[in-house]
Amino acid sequence: MTAQPRFFCADAARERGDALAGTAPYGSVWILVEYRGGWPPNGYDGLDLDPATKSHVYAAAQRVRARILLIRRHGRRPVEGPKRWAVLHGERDGAHRQQWGTWDDDQDLAAIADALDAPGETGCPPVLLVCAHGLHDTCCALRGRPVARALGDRWPELVWECTHIGGDRFAANVVVAPDGVYYGNLDADASLTTVEQHLADRVHARHLRGYTDLTPAQQVAVVAVLESAGPAGRRDYLVERTVRDQDRWFIRVSGGPAGLSTYDVEVRSRREPATRLTCHGRFRSSALSYEVVSLREREV
């Protein structure tokens, strides 16, 4: 009997030409927990922590729709001192707030719940999260770890490997938090260029999955504008209006800074044929994708 070739979801997605834009999950609050041991397939939920503390943090996260991610430095290199945790908030006006702490005992993590309601510090550099969660999905490890290595060599204080962030088939995935920007289909070279431009407040469309404060259709509209008009700052374009008519969206994207135009974008959704979307998924799933029907620059 001939053995079946091993399935890799990222390879299959590239062969199918799966649409990248519009795939960033919603969220503006991130909880990061440094965990230097092996990561369970289900991340934080699978950790053997003090039950009361674990439930307390989880309930607080649910209340504000925060995503809990385990983090570590690339290569699991030895790190001295207590482990770190963080709460990151991204605001619609572009303001960022972060609060960092440390933990030795499980009970120390209870401070995360209080941090969710605390003001946090502003002016902190962004955090670069690279999904490298191999037990969750093989492609995240195979494609994510080289990207984490490349970015970590360049920006060692900003980069962390993290657990599942969604969109395994678009590995390697990088999230800039709390900016709320998802990039995908990256390799080491592309990640360096993409992140360097992002840190200079130049978001390019090529690897952009979307902004986490927008709906999928709105994300697609913004990506279309960036493809047409060229790279721009994270907050340079705002979604001014969105009207939905069944499977179509009519979205107005306005340029804030002087010299940037306003665009009317029509986006249509469609249900794709069922297929395997993850390496470890045993069943086929049908994803919803979005395409741009028209893009028109508005006359002033």
Short summary of the structure?
This protein is of the alpha+beta class.
Number of DSSP helices?
6
Order of helices and strands: HEHEEEHEHEEEHEHEEEE
Average predicted local confidence, pLDDT:
93
- CATH homologous superfamily of the domain at 9-214? Glutaredoxin
Q: Report how far apart the termini are.
A: 67 Å
Question: What is the CATH class designation of the domain at 9-214?
Answer: Alpha Beta
CATH-level-2 architecture of the domain at 9-214: 3-Layer(aba) Sandwich
According to DSSP, the number of beta strands is 13
Description:
- The chain is of the alpha+beta class.
- It has a domain at 9-214: Glutaredoxin (3-Layer(aba) Sandwich).
- 23% of the residues lie in helices and 28% in strands.
- It has six helices and 13 strands.
- The strands form two sheets. Strands 4-3-1-2-6-5-7-8-9 form a nine-stranded mixed sheet. A four-stranded antiparallel sheet has the order 10-11-12-13, with helices on one face.
- The longest helix has 17 residues, at 138-154.
- The mean pLDDT is 93.
